[in-house]
Amino acid sequence: MDLEKFKVHGEPLIYGAMISIALATIGIIVGLTVFKKWGYLWREWLTTVDHKRIGVMYILAALLMLFRGGIDAIMMRLQTAAPDMKFLDAQHYNEVFTTHGLIMILFMAMPFIIGLMNVIIPLQIGARDVAFPRLNAVSFWLFFFGAMLLNISFVIGGSPDAGWSAYFPLASIEFSPTVGNNYYSLALQISGIGTLITGINFIVTILKMRAPGMKLMKMPMFTWSVLITNIIIVFAFPVLTVALALMMFDRLFGSQFFTMANGGMDMLWANLFWVWGHPEVYIVVLPAFGIYSEIIATFSKKNLYGYTSMVFSMLIISLLSFLVWAHHFYTMGQGVMVNSFFSITTMAIAVPTGVKIFNWLFTLRKGRITFTTPMLYTLAFIPIFTIGGVTGVMLAMASADYQYHNTMFLVAHFHYVLIPGAVFAVIAGFHYWFPKVFGFRLNERLGKHAFWWIIISFNVTFFPLFLLGLMGMTRRMYTYSEETGFGPLNMLSFAGALGLAIGFVILVYNIYWSTRYEPRDTTGDPWDARTLEWATNSPIPAYNFAVVPKVQTRDALWSAKQDNIPLFTEEITKIHMPSNTGKPFILGVVFFFFGFFLVFSMWIPAIVAGVGIILVMAAMSFDRDHGFYIPAKEVIATEKKLRGETV
Amino acid sequence: MMKQLFPIRHVMGYIASLVLSAAALAVIYLDLSKTVDIIILTVTAIIQASLQLFVFMHIGESADTKKELYINIAYALFVGLVTIFGTLFIFLWGWYA
């Protein structure tokens, strides 16, 4: 066998990455063995079907990927900080910006949101778990091993290098002969299947498992946003699945779907990619809207203004999100009629989004506002996201877009949309729901330090990019000459990127500090919040609610607290729970090897792994598992203990 | 016993979907005009889809979530048709000429 194709040559940085990956792996293995944690890891985490633990694992993975993608970002900003920098070569720079995009969207923003969704949704609707707990574990492990497959590409064989959108013909085997784009098609495919399963799981959960009395129009806003998001997932991801499969056929088996000869059509890739890609933007942004709605209502001590219009604006956004995709390629060659149509549908999205912004402002009006860390992120989101939205309308005008297209102006625009619209939201949600999961809050002083670092540095990093774009700097250029005059603003942007890094380091330090010193919360409701997830104890017991709550109003917990409406009226009885299983984890591992062998066209091992996948799935379908019961006595004891009483 | 092994409704459904698939193949093996081809494909596809939905996916069974199910199918149709006709709109009817 030829080992040469696995090697990546030449760059001291890559050797550094190899060594650090090897050291981290050895460190983890030694650590687990020394502290005798292998059994604990397997029993409590790898085999778990508990939605809260799966959510925590999603968020941990997302934080790791945030740092991986962040390091990519700093490398790019460093390479472009001054004219004619020699830090990265062109190939390496291409790989870095491609993986930065892929990781930040698919392996950071998505799992962070799915993680919060996993932890919070069953609690918010008063359920004991998601509809299909075991399938939920399958989702997570497919996502996780898909992400790992993409991550090892950096040191084994080379990363994808044709941009996160992998446009053909550049991404074809003819112009990108390395295995990089094979990794792209397979890693995204594996984690994409996981996401699709999540979508189905949560639609069923929200439609079928709500607490008695919770009509659709009485659901909390975050639950609504997640329901709509998952509907978009179920309808958008199949397009990506098909596109990636065609791409894989083209690259591995010599088919001609996206080639420029033999009846293939390279532009069809861009078309299919954005049929998925634009709804994908709303998949990460809509849950963020839900998170902000919860936070604004809680910290203004008011119910959300315009609940019905909030729901309908999200529904309209979800429909419109499928009608705008061609605005990503105005310059590809379609006529005026097509561009005008997509221009108008794109601008129309600003209307329901504007409705939401006004609703948040009216919720704040005359509210008793407390400036906690999650609230600060929310308040910062409104003006920054509006700048992103307004520049979006500028880009939406097809004729003007011929000027902005593929410049740094576009890069600045989507960072102004996605960072407040997804990253600030998940950080805000992380601070807001942290006490629910772990039983103590993150420190407010450190949290605000991190907030100011992040918010100021964000603007220092990305505002100069608007100006650079208008000056004519195109995106994805790995260097430029001094005469262009791009130097000073790029240096400013690099300084901002370093500030962002400091902000995120403070954020992580805050987790460490709070774990050690922050006082523990025994009320289960530290923010004086409004929705059901705060009605149970924190940390949350395995069964979520000792008794299933009865809902009468929209802000169920708030009215329970204000008007003394009892939420829990029934006696505690035995509780049925799903049992843990290791099969989803094993399935993920087998999928990982299947993907890896396909990337390198190693057919015999790939077929063996493929048969392995079918065998594991067959074993899962014939599994007879009726779960188990927690006896009432044990539930009562746990409840007393969590409330700090002595048993 | 025989009824359990061969639930008549499902066996018939299975045979029907095989027949429909074979009928769709006629488009390749028989030399028909393009219009007839499209008609055959459309009709067999619609029958096939409803067969799957009603016989194998039991869409008519649960009364409480009927509305949600049909809204979801309408949404799926919307997305599918928008994708197909949008693509045709971009690359054929509205292509710059």
From TrEMBL, chain A:
It catalyses: 2 a quinol + O2 = 2 a quinone + 2 H2O; 4 Fe(II)-[cytochrome c] + O2 + 8 H(+)(in) = 4 Fe(III)-[cytochrome c] + 2 H2O + 4 H(+)(out). Its EC number is 1.10.3.-. GO terms for biological process: aerobic respiration; electron transport coupled proton transport; respiratory electron transport chain. GO terms for molecular function: copper ion binding; cytochrome-c oxidase activity; heme binding; oxidoreductase activity, acting on diphenols and related substances as donors, oxygen as acceptor. Keywords: Cell membrane, Copper, Electron transport, Heme, Hydrogen ion transport, Ion transport, Iron, Membrane, Metal-binding, Oxidoreductase, Respiratory chain, Translocase, Transmembrane, Transmembrane helix, Transport. SUPFAM superfamilies: Cytochrome c oxidase subunit I-like. Binds a copper B center. Heme A3. It is found in: Cell membrane. Coiled coil: none annotated. Belongs to the heme-copper respiratory oxidase family. This is Quinol oxidase subunit 1. The lineage of its organism: Bacteria, Bacillati, Bacillota, Bacilli, Bacillales.
TrEMBL record, chain B:
GO terms for molecular function: cytochrome bo3 ubiquinol oxidase activity; oxidoreductase activity, acting on diphenols and related substances as donors, oxygen as acceptor; proton transmembrane transporter activity. Its EC number is 1.10.3.-. One of its GO terms (cellular component) is plasma membrane. It is a multi-pass membrane protein. It is found in: Cell membrane. The chain crosses the membrane at residues 12-32, 38-57, 69-96. It holds the Pfam family COX4_pro. Keywords: Cell membrane, Membrane, Oxidoreductase, Transmembrane, Transmembrane helix. It comes from the Bacteria. Coiled coil: none annotated. It catalyses: 2 a quinol + O2 = 2 a quinone + 2 H2O. One of its GO terms (biological process) is aerobic electron transport chain. Belongs to the cytochrome c oxidase bacterial subunit 4 family. Catalyzes quinol oxidation with the concomitant reduction of oxygen to water. This is Quinol oxidase subunit 4. It comes from Paenibacillus albidus.
